Amino acid sequence: MSSAKEPRTQLTIPTITTSQSTPQTPREQRGDDWQFFWVTREWMTTCYDKHKFSEKQLICHFRNDFELTRKDFLIKNYKKARKAKEKSGVDVASEFNFIPSSYVLPAEYHLFVEEFRKYPTDTIWIMKPVAGAQGKGIFLFRKLKHVQEWKKKDSSGSEALPYVVQSYIHNPYLVGGKKFDVRIYVLVTSFRPMNAWVHREGFARFSHSRYSTDSVDDAFVHLTNVAVAKTAADYDPERGLKWSLPKLMRFFKSMHGHSKVSKLMNDLAKVIIESLRSVQNLIIQDTHCFELYGYDILFDENLKPWLLEVNASPSLTASSQEDFELKYRVLNHMIDVLDIDKKLLGNENEVGGFDILVRNNKPVEICKVARHNQPFFTPQLNLRLGKLVF
C-alpha cells in the first residue's frame, strides 16, 4: 500500500495462485508445465494462434471477446438481436430494452442526426470512445454543434476516431443525491454450450459530486469512475465512494421492499443473459478459453437496469483494503470454478462466491446473496427466463 491515506494494492494472479498451492515458476523456465495463464488482450491477438495447448491449459480470454466488450460491437450485436426479437413478435420496448438509443460515429452520423432531431432540444447525449477506459474521452452535450466540433477536432486524415453516442440516462437512481453504477463480475467458461456464473460481491461506484443536469461539463457529477474522482482537488479515499453489492441490495430492500428488489434482480439477470446470448454464436468457442467480465450497470429512478458496457479486463487494482479483499475473493473463487485440480462434480450451483447463472444454455434456479441466505437471482427468475429459447 502506498500510504495510510490512500491504500492501493495491485492484485496479481501469482498472488492468488500461490494461495491455491499451485507451484509458480518464471515464464521463461516453465515451458509447457503450466495450467493457467493470465494474458493481455494483445497477447491473444499476436500469440494465441502460434501456440498449441494441452488439454488442461487455460487462457483468460476468448479470442474475439471484443464482440461483447468493445462498445461499437456490443451495440451492433444488441441491435441485431433486438431486430431478430422484434421479427419473432417480441415486444422489444418492454422485453428487450436495456441499452439506450445508440449510434457509432462517424459511420452512423447521419442516422444519429435524424434521431437527434426527434428528441426535445434539451435532451442530453453522451459520447464515449469505443475502446476507452477510466472515463477518458467521455463528454456530454445538448447541441448538435458539439458533435460537429468533435468531428472536426478528432478527425485524422479522412476518418475520425470511432465513438459511440447514446441518449443519456437523465433520471438515474440517486443515493444521497449522488449517481452511481454497479460493477458485477460474470465468469463465462463456455459459450457453446453457454455456461456462465455471477459473483455475489460486486460493488457500486458513486460519483464524486451530487447529481444535477444544470451542467453537462462536470465529470465529477456525471461519471462514477474512480480514476475521474481521484482527480478532484478534495478527493478523499476514505469518504466511501464504493458500496458492496449486498449492501446496495439491503438499501434497496429497506427503501422499496422485497418484491421490487426481486424484480430488479430478475431484470438484471435477464440483461446479463441476453447480452451473452447476443454474441453466443459469434464468439470463437475454445475449450482452453474462459473470461471474467466486468459488467457495468446503471439503475434509473424506477430501478430499471441499463447496461453501460462490458469489460474484458476489469480492473484488478484495489483502491482500499476492502476493495483488495473483494477482488481477491473474486479471483480466488474464479480459479475454484475453473477447477484446475478437478475436484468439482460438475453439477454445483455455487462455488465460493459464484452462483451458476446459465448451465448448458439454460438459466439455473438456485442463487443466494452472499452470507445472508437471501434471494439473489430468485426462483421467480425462472418463471420469466424459462420462456427464453436457447
Automatic annotation (TrEMBL):
Record's compositionally biased regions (Low complexity): 9-26
Region of interest: Disordered: 1-29
Keywords tagged on the record: ATP-binding, Ligase, Nucleotide-binding
Transcription is among the record's keywords: no
Signal sequence residues: none
Family: Belongs to the tubulin--tyrosine ligase family.
Protein name: Tubulin--tyrosine ligase-like protein 9
Source organism of this protein record: Caenorhabditis remanei
Upper classification of the organism: Eukaryota, Metazoa, Ecdysozoa, Nematoda, Chromadorea
